[in-house]
Amino acid sequence: MNLKTLLAVLVSGLTLLVGSSMLGSSMASPAQVGSDLAAQLPDGEGKGYVQTICTSCHGLGLLVYQRKTLQGWEATVWDMLGRISAGLDREAEIISKYLYKSFPAETSTPPADDPPADAGMSESTAPRFQIFHQVVFKFKPEVSEVQKTALLESGKKMLESIPQVATVLVGKVSQEDSEFPYGLVTGFQSEEDLQAYRSHPAHRKWLEEDYRPLVLKSQVTDLVAME
């Protein structure tokens, strides 16, 4: 059973459980469950996109049971829509804002007199990176060496311009027989920083205008530090 099928089964089971608990001892039908979830979507710009675009890959349960910051929803939506098709920037922005307005995460602001988290820290006591985000890829056959170099340079410049990116490594994979000869590695202090990078306008612009037109295939890995 692949991941998508397993996820669909889990969501189906969760929605049926919620539906049955709401109706007492009677079991809700799939149609009733879908109707219950749809009823939890507030009116507003973006509702139609959620019901058509988002549900083309998964049920509404993956949305209505989550609570995220705006950056969190942007990261999720841009990632999902990027897998469907390029050129859905406007829809992604509308959906992200709608989901944040409908299902926001509770956030808290530390008191103004609290000292900065890194105040007085030396290099030896500074927090280590919590997440390394690795993208390895192969260019299309017709891409020239000049174009390859230009893409790597523009990618490094783009990554260094994003505040949440704590470290950057751009280059070639050392194994000569690797399926993916080139790569970008970025380090982040938190999941929130990674989400902010994914939805950052400079990152999205580089993906659409520079990266996707030249890249044939890629592989993405997020390595999270153990507690």
Describe the fold and architecture.
This protein is an alpha+beta fold. It has two domains: 3-19 and 28-102, no CATH class; 131-224, Alpha-Beta Plaits (2-Layer Sandwich). It has helices at residues 3-22, 30-39, 47-52, 61-64, 70-84, 89-102, 145-160, 191-199, 201-211; strands spanning 131-139, 167-172, 182-188, 215-224. It has a four-stranded antiparallel β-sheet with strand order 2-3-1-4. Helix 5 crosses helix 8 (191-199).
Would you kindly provide a brief summary of this structure?
The chain has helices spanning 3-22, 30-39, 47-52, 61-64, 70-84, 89-102, 145-160, 191-199, 201-211, and strands at residues 131-139, 167-172, 182-188, 215-224. The chain has 227 residues and is of the alpha+beta class.
Could you give the topology of this structure?
Elements: H1 3-22, H2 30-39, H3 47-52, H4 61-64, H5 70-84, H6 89-102, E1 131-139, H7 145-160, E2 167-172, E3 182-188, H8 191-199, H9 201-211, E4 215-224
Antiparallel strand pairs: 1-3, 1-4, 2-3
Helix pairs in contact: 1-2, 5-6, 5-8, 7-9
